[in-house]
Each structure stands twice: as C-alpha cells, then as structure tokens.
Amino acid sequence: MARFSRSSGSRLLYSLTTASSSSAAAAPSRLHGPQSTLASLLLLGGRCRHFSSGNLARAKEDKEPWWKESMGRLRNIGISAHIDSGKTTLTERILFYTGRIHEIHEVRGKDGVGAKMDSMDLEREKGITIQSAATYCTWNGYQVNIIDTPGHVDFTIEVERALRVLDGAILVLCSVGGVQSQSITVDRQMRRYEVPRLAFINKLDRMGADPWKVLNQARAKLRHHSAAVQAPIGLEEEFQGLVDLVKMKAYYFRGSNGEKVVSEEVPANMEDLVAEKRRELIEVVSEVDDKLAEAFLNDEPITPTDLEEAIRRATIARKFVPVFMGSAFKNKGVQPLLDGVLDYLPCPTEVRNYALDQNKKEEKVALSGTPNGPLVALAFKLEEGRFGQLTFLRIYEGVIRKGDFIINVNTGKKLKVPRLVRMHSDEMEDIQEAHAGQIVAVFGVDCASGDTFTDGSVRYTMTSMNVPEPVMSLAVSPVSKDSGGQKEDPTFRVGLDPESGQTIISGMGELHLDIYVERIRREYKVDATVGKPRVNFRETVTHRAEFDYLHKKQTGGQGQYGRVCGYVEPLPAGSPVKFEFENMIVGQAIPSGFIPAIEKGFREAANSGSLIGHPVENIRVVLTDGASHAVDSSELAFKLAAIYAFRQCYSAARPVILEPIMLVELKVPTEFQGTVAGDINKRKGVIVGNDQDGDDSVITAHVPLNNMFGYSTSLRSMTQGKGEFTMEYKEHAPVSQDVQMQLVNSHKASKGAE
C-alpha cells in the first residue's frame, strides 16, 4: 500500500508499507513502472528518504515518527518448550502462512526433506532441534524475527542466549503432556531474563487433549497469572476451530493447508461456555490492570478494544500470560497466534534493556532502543558456515551499515563490516543496513559469543550472559591439534592436556558431548575415539622436610658439580601462589647467576609428583646453603641437583593427593528431596544448605567430582526429569586414605604396563 502525505514546507514524503504477505491468502499486488523503482530503492535503503532539500533540523523532526512506526512494526520472539511439544512444526507453519516457504515438510517427514528450521543433518535424523536458527517473516505489515530454540536440557545455553536477545516469547505446551519438566526450566529462564510471554497449547487434535487441565497446571506449577483468550470448538478428532474470546468471533481454517481463515458467529451450543470463559478472562486481567478493573467494577460494557489494550499492557508488564490454542500439525490456530504476537507482545522500544558502562566501573545504563543513539550490538550466536564464521547480532541501539567500522568492546579490536545479511534458517539475503531492534548476521567478524560491538563513541557491554561451566570432560583422539578455536558454543571447551597429551573436550552433559563427537565425525570428517571421563587430581606436602643433595658427574672434559641444601614445607592456607621459591643463602656459597636455574629445576620437578604423577601445589622451597665448583659448576648441573633434591625429600614431606570438590546446586521438586539428599551422601557429598523456593527444594552440597560422573542421568531418573543441577569448581581437598592407596596402586600398575 503506497501513501503520499504533505508535510511542512510543501515537501513530499513517500512512504511504503508492505501488505500482508501471507501465502495464498493475500498475494501482494505488484508495483509497475516508476513506482516499482522507487519502492525497490526505498526497500533497499531500508529507510524512507525525504526527497527534498529542506534543512536538516526539520528533516530530523520528520524522522521521529518514522522510527516510531518502523520500530512499532517489529517483533523479536522466541518459541521455546519441552521437547516434542511441536515447536519446530509450529515455526514451520508460521513460515508457510507468512509466505516465507511455499510447502510444508514435517520434522520426521517421510519425504526426507525435514523441517526448514532443522538445518543440520544430525537434527533431521534425530528429529530434535539443536541450534536456534533465526528467521524473519512479515505478517500484516509487521516484521517478525523468530528464534527457534532447542528443548533439551543439555542445550540450555542456546535457550538462554536466545532469550537474552528476545523481546517476547511463545511458550508451547502440549495439550496431552501438559506442563513438563523442561517447560518449567524454560519458564524459569524466561523469568530470569524478564521476557513477556504468550502460551500456546498445541496438539488439540490428539487423543486425550485437555487444554483446561493444562491451563490449571500452568497456574499451579509455573505460577502463571493466566487465562485463555480462545476456546476450542470440539476436541481430539472433532477439533474444528476456535472462538476468539476477545472479539467474540468463531474462526474456522479451510483450504488444503488451513490457509483460509473463515470468521463466523459463535456456535449456539457454545454460547454459555464462551460467556463464562470471557468473564474469567476479564476478571483475571482486571486483577492486574487498573483501567480494566475500573470498568469491570462499574459494570460498564467492555469492548474488544478495551480488553485487547488491557491484555497488552498486562502482558508487557509481565503480570499476565494470555493462553492461545490450536494444532500446528493440523494447521489450525496458527494465524490467530500470529495476530496475538502482534497484538500482545512488545516491540523493541517497549522493553527496557541495560548495558554496563566499562568506563564507569560497569555502571548500569538504560539504552534508549532507538536508531538515534550510538551503535550497541550483541553477538549472541556464532556458526561456522560455508563462508567462514557467521555472527548473529541483536542491535539494541543505533544503526549498523555494510562497510562501517565497529569496535569489539570485549577485545578492543576495530573491525569493518564486510557483509550484512538477514537469516532464514541457513539461507541468507544481503542487506545494506539494519537499525535498533533488528536481528542480523555478519560475515568475517572475528569474535566470541557474548561480545558487544559499538561504533567507538561509548564503551558499553551488554550484561554478561549466564554461561554455565562445563561439567564433564572426555578425552578424544585423534582430533587435529588446531581444533581448539571453537567459539560457537561457549559451554563446549576444547583443550590439550599437558599431563597426558590427550585432547580433552568438556561440555554440559553426556548428550552434549555425544552430539559434538558426532559433529566432529560428520562436519570435519574426523573419526574420533572417545576415552572415559576423567578428573584432574593434584598433590601437595603436609610436613617440612630437609634436603641436601650433591650432583657430581665427571666425564672427559668439563664435569658437572652442584650442591643444594634447604627444606620444603607446605604454604600457609589461602596463599595467593601455588609454588614459592626463596633463596636464604648468606654470602656466595652458590654464585647468584645459578639461582634462577635452581628455581627452574624445582618448578620442573613440582610439575609431576611421585605419588600419581600429577602437579604438586601449595609448596614452598627454601634454599639455605650449597656448594659450587669454580670449573665444573653450570646452570644445567644446578638444575639437575634441584630436581633430584626435590625427589629425595618429597616422600619425607608426607605427600597427599588432592581431588577437585564441586559446589553442586540442585533444584528439585520437594517430593524428591529425600531421595536426592540420600544419593548425595552416598556419593560422599556434604550438604551445606537446603532452602525452599516455591514448590522446589534448593540443595547446596560439596561433592567430589570423581563421584559425579553420570549424575545428570541418575538425577533425571530420580526426579522424573524435573530436577536440574549446576556444578562449579570449589577447591581441591585431600582424598581419604583408602582412595589415596587405590589411586597410587592404579598409577603404579599403569606405569608398570607402559
């Protein structure tokens, strides 16, 4: 639709808004001649230009409403849910109705094409979504960016990263399964990032579908202040359509793919139910919206517009969750859900985003969210594409253009934007510029996930994203040595173990590591053998022990001579360094030029203790005396003397093995508290705290890492998948005597075998 409007100074402003591009329902009218050229120019630039030579100040005034309208027509939403609630199927239908794709493929379809959003081979095969693909589409002249997120616990970093950049979300619930464990986790994450949300009860066509039961579960388990904005016409096989409780209209979905939405009057046999449910909706919303409450208490008639505005206010304030219904697989209820996204979820300017000012000791700064401010963008996802690293950016403020110079605040590097694209799963289209509120991808920008980019005028970083520490490590071989530069997923780490020379990969759990080993096999064509998970031990001394060692070697020519005397002792608790060397020699018993070589020798010897060959920590070496030879003393002689002196006195210092102790935080429903606590005691854990949080128990414990392998699996089975845990490194602590004997014996046996 084209609009001409006169503005001050008789300048002509031409603005163009695209009609709804829903597929067959409304094919956009084609523009011809000069109009089409003008339209394409406008769309290319991404902004309306003023065709005038009027002064800049007035042009700026004119621009204000344009930003407002353009930003008001933008929605950034995520779709997240429990695994198998039909999330990816729903996204597929949304893309079909908005004209982004022209045919529908099922997730585990027989045609072998797979859903559009599942673009990795592995995802199509397993029928689960691993990466959150970002896609944009238009609906009724609004631009909607959709992030499809994974539902598996091991991939929660993807969900958290997606929620970090969204303005609103759709929580998909299954009308048969109801509120499941992962729904609780996802909802908790949405609450943490303060994301306004709609709920969509899917699969109403399935046997045993009961949306009202699910709605009550959401109120009880998720503590949602929610009410239905729709009522279904029939359920299971008889599911035909929906009644909109706001507008009081019945909708039926006709056509081969439900693309024709037919609006009719509410069926006579449903009038009582609909009136009751509408009254319930008004009551629930008026509890959190004063304006509607006033009208409701004064018994004034409530128009659909009043109700719609009240729902929008309450949803954006995160005081209310509107509940939609449908069956994505049967193509029913998707278009009204899209309307709900436009009507009830916020546009980028209605959400508060804060940055941390690095120049003012990370002081919180509210961002305006408009394209007028300085550029602030967050790299929230990285992908290795065919053309190198693809970085997904959410722009919070300002404008980014192709060819601009931007600065990575986290590293301080200045970069040029070589190519700017808009993503549609794994296809892309080039754009020239993008403004605040949009989600775009850039090529050839070297950065890590979570980095912030600005135009250089400010040093803001977006709040650090909650990245959980990897909790499990596996040794893999052979993986090429340069594979450590993986920046796509911050919870997956690759490193080379200096002690064993093995490549160690660490991640969030067994499934997470399995998927990565599988990806190494497929994407990099490297067949990797996977070792058993392992733990990094340390050694230390508990007593003071003296050393006095003479290293003397006479061969033809210059010999070797060096004598070192002194003692080793444990460092006091809480010392900042792990190894300390002190020279207390008075006079010139050993020339000062050899002292660094002696320190080097002791440090080298401490790299591998004689109990199980792991590094020795918390040790202080004091040099008190020694002797040198005018000709035969050399740096090498004193270095060797130090190494042998350390080995000589080490066993006298009563060494012990230290193991990593983890701080484990569990969140489990109260009914499983006893079982879980008993299991922690069995794993030699010490419970240090137990709190209530709503219906959940939060248990804090210190558990040896060696006893935590396979824990994610056993916790899921103990709590029916409802428990979750995080663990982070706390400290190294001495192992018990029996464990020490066991470790020493197995080390000796493995050395003997070599």
Give the SSE layout.
Layout: E1 2-7, E2 11-16, H1 33-45, H2 56-72, E3 74-81, H3 87-97, H4 121-126, E4 134-139, E5 142-148, H5 156-165, E6 168-174, H6 181-192, E7 197-202, H7 211-221, E8 226-228, E9 230-233, E10 241-244, E11 249-254, E12 260-264, H8 271-286, H9 290-297, H10 304-316, E13 321-325, H11 334-344, E14 353-357, E15 363-367, E16 376-385, E17 388-397, E18 399-401, E19 405-408, E20 414-416, E21 420-424, E22 427-430, E23 433-435, E24 439-443, E25 452-454, E26 460-462, E27 472-477, E28 493-496, E29 503-507, H12 510-523, E30 529-530, E31 538-541, E32 545-553, E33 560-570, E34 579-583, H13 595-606, E35 619-627, H14 635-650, E36 655-669, H15 673-682, E37 686-693, E38 696-704, H16 711-718, E39 724-734, H17 737-753
Parallel strand pairs: 3-5, 3-6, 6-7, 7-13, 8-13, 34-35
Antiparallel strand pairs: 1-2, 4-5, 9-10, 10-11, 11-12, 14-15, 14-26, 16-17, 16-25, 17-24, 18-23, 19-20, 19-25, 21-22, 21-24, 27-29, 27-30, 28-29, 31-36, 32-33, 33-35, 36-38, 36-39, 37-38
Helix pairs in contact: 8-9, 13-14
